[in-house]
Amino acid sequence: MTTADGLLGRLAGLDRQRLATVLAHRPDVLGEPWPRRLDVVAARLATAASVNEALLGLPTPHAQVVRALQLCYALGTWPAPVAEAARLLGTGPGVVESFVDELAERALAWREPGGVTLPELLRRTDFRANGLGHPAADLLGELGTTRLARLSRAVGLPDDVRRTDLLQGLVGFFRDAEGLRELAGTAPEPVQKLLRDMAEGVPEVNAATPLPGTPEAWAFERGFLFGTYYGSAAMPVEVSLALRGPDHHLPFTPNEPGCPVVDIGAESAEAASSAAALRLLDRVSAVLELATAEPFPLLKVGTIGSRLIKKVAKEVRGTPEEIELAIDLAVQTGLLLAEEPNPPRRGQKTPPPTLEPDPDVLRPAPALLHRLLLTTWWDSASPVDGTDVGAQVRRLVVRLLARLDPGRGITDAGALTRLAEWHAPMLPTEDFAGHVQAVLAEGELLGAVAHGAVTQAGRALLDPGKLVEVTEALVAHARTTALFGTDLTAIVPGSPDARLAARLDRAADRETQGTATSWRFSPSTVRRAFDQGATAADLLDELGAIASGELPQPLVYLINDVARRHGEARVLDVASVVVGEPPVLAEIAAHRKLAKLGLRAVAPTVLTSTVDASGTLEALREAGYAPTHHAADGSIVLPAREQAEPKVAIRDPEAADRKPDPLAHADRLLAAPVSGPNLQRGQLARAMSDRYAGRLTPKQQQLCWQLEAGVPVDVVYRADGAEPARLVVAYPELDDDVLDVWSLHDRAYRRLELARIDLA
User: Which helix (H) or strand (E) holds 293?
Assistant: First the structure.
């Protein structure tokens, strides 16, 4: 019986709540398309990918119990006796049973009358990673009959029996721990030291098989060491355990390490969360504005360079860490897109790809943008290969901190790292502390963590139903007015909203930010606003609208004084230049319809225009001429495609986009048959042939074969009283004259009558 068969029998006997518990612990099995029945759930639970994912989330004592059960299997006792596993761990059977029950909730083990059964994928024969080696039965199975007979004779067993009896006798000899210890006591002292050293945790060493008669040969002749194919010496698991003595136990730490908790205060944590969230929103908005004006060049490896990050941080008065996170999240959310450059002309260098805002996406409102940033950070895209350790640690740390009361946190990063490692010892990383530090740093910038405590925004990640309410309230805390001082400063106590910050940034420079943000006005900053098109009246009205009182006179005087001097010298642009033969240019300059261009001759072959190049081109073409457009370096300019107005609006996830509800799926699965029909090769093609009266084209036959192989296929379905619907379907099951398929657009199963399906 396979693991999937055993799991199916177990799942079928669970009630609604217990089945939902299994699904909650193994959410990967609820991936789309949803499993139709329990047999599909069992098959998914038995896959290597699903088992490995579950193992990564096991706390330390659960992983240690699994190792003890695996060792029982390797030593030939299966199902694994609970008492034997408890003896190996140095604890009581009741303790092991409690952990086995929790492993059963993860479908990683289950109790039976004879002991504990493990899935096939968890039955190991190599324990070198745990300081042990291979079981003697595996090492003996690689030996020839002559070598087995010689080994039997050396340990005092009959050597004139069949190979199976030789193996059985030797396996029994190695499982007699007391006998192994007695025999090891007769070894030469150098050999005893070698055996003790290897038994303590080095089950395999580089050592050639010694010549007969030497002291080291004693261990090889009696099976205490085995020569391997790679020229090393390996000690069987049974020998290691026997030499460690009857009082030795496998590591077992059932209690999580202590961690000092600090009271930060709920109000203080939420205030810091609000300030951090609004600050990050400001940084993301500034990054998008800068990328709109001048796209960010990417390095050859496809990332933003540290020099550019520092430059952007300096421009927006932020930290490099804030800018790096803002750009990373903007890319992951699709607000920034990587654009490949046009092929270069001959002799020119290839320009680098760039990051620039998606022109089709509307900029989301602040609260929605913060939700988007939070959920993107929380559910970052998984790598194609390997495990996203950063994402695993991120979810673990937030969940651990969320167990504490609001306003209470853990500021000792070392203690938090030890606690997190206890809860996930099997994560493949050598820098667990670095990942924990990254979670805390990024969580602080997002407002999900404040001073080591999880905030309401962080807790909402664990309860998405509250995310809208929390982020709306958080953004609502932003200040919309500023305090203007006579020293030409503006101070915002708390966090400014995006509109307030943008207006102050336009005419002043940021000086400090934290619990309060300050700006300073100067002649150069006010002139900057005028350079962007503002007038004195506009600027005074704009600043008066965000002032908590009257604007101070020094600021009014400064604005009016800069306004009086603004434009005292003028620099005129030549919008475009027309180049051609003198007769043609003379005709163009005298053309009455082209007077609006403000043409002026600066040379016999050059006219200047007060209208930009595109306007001049259009006017000349309307007048009957055929000009070409050239760049400043003389190269011809191809017409650019018109940019459409943004059409895509980011919205909150709908019900179909949220994570599956284990209880709802448990109800659905328990209401369905336990197993169903398997679609046989060619069965669908035969059924569709009947629908088409035996006239399937080769293309239609290919589509049927693709469906049977699990490849999505386009079909047209003609239901009664409705327009024909084009569907993309996959994962079919044939139920008489009905095809049960997964619709990729609907993200649900649909039952389609064969007579109404047209293969596209």
Answer: helix 266-293
